[in-house]
Amino acid sequence: MSEVNPRVYNRWERGLATPQFDTVVRIADILQVTLDELAGRTPAAAEPRIHNQELLNLYQQVDSLPDAEQQALIPVIDSFVRKTQVQKVMSRRR
C-alpha cells in the first residue's frame, strides 16, 4: 500500500470521497473489526482489546475523571490512533 495523500485522507473524512474496497478491508483488519462493525451495521465488540497492561489500567481509570478532562483526552487519543491506523493501512499496500 502506498502512502495516502493527506488531501485524499481529508476527503475521506469529510465524506467527499470513499476509499477503494481493498483499502476498507485493510482498515478493518488493522482496527481488528469486521466490515459490518466498521460500517456501523453491527455494534463493535464490547470488551476493549488492550494488551498493554499499563494502558489498560489507565483506561479503567478514565471513567472516574471529570467530564471536561475526559473530553480533553478524546481528540488527543483520536489523533494518535487515526495517524497510526492510516500509516499501517498505507504501508501494507507497498
Please give a structural write-up.
This protein has one domain. The radius of gyration is 15 Å and the shape is globular. The relative contact order is 0.16. The chain is mainly α. α2 (21-31) packs across α5. The protein is 64% helix and 0% strand. It starts with 5 loop residues before the first helix and ends with a helix. The protein has helices at residues 6-13, 21-31, 35-39, 53-62, 67-92. The longest helix is centred in the last third of the chain and has 26 residues, at 67-92. This is Helix-turn-helix transcriptional regulator. InterPro entries: Cro/C1-type_HTH (IPR001387), Lambda_DNA-bd_dom_sf (IPR010982). GO terms for molecular function: DNA binding.
How would you classify the helix and strand content by structural class?
A: mainly alpha
The helix/strand order is HHHHH
The main pleated sheet reads as:
none
Question: How much of the residues is beta strand, in percent?
Answer: under 5%
- Uncertain spans, ≥5 residues at pLDDT below 50? none
The level of helicity is 55-70%
Cα-to-Cα separation, first versus last residue: 4 Å
Q: What is the overall number of helices?
A: 5
Q: What would the average pLDDT be, to the nearest integer?
A: 83
Radius of gyration (CA) equals 15 Å
Please indicate the count of domains. Answer: 1
Q: How many strand elements?
A: 0
Q: What coarse outline follows from CA principal-axis ratios?
A: globular
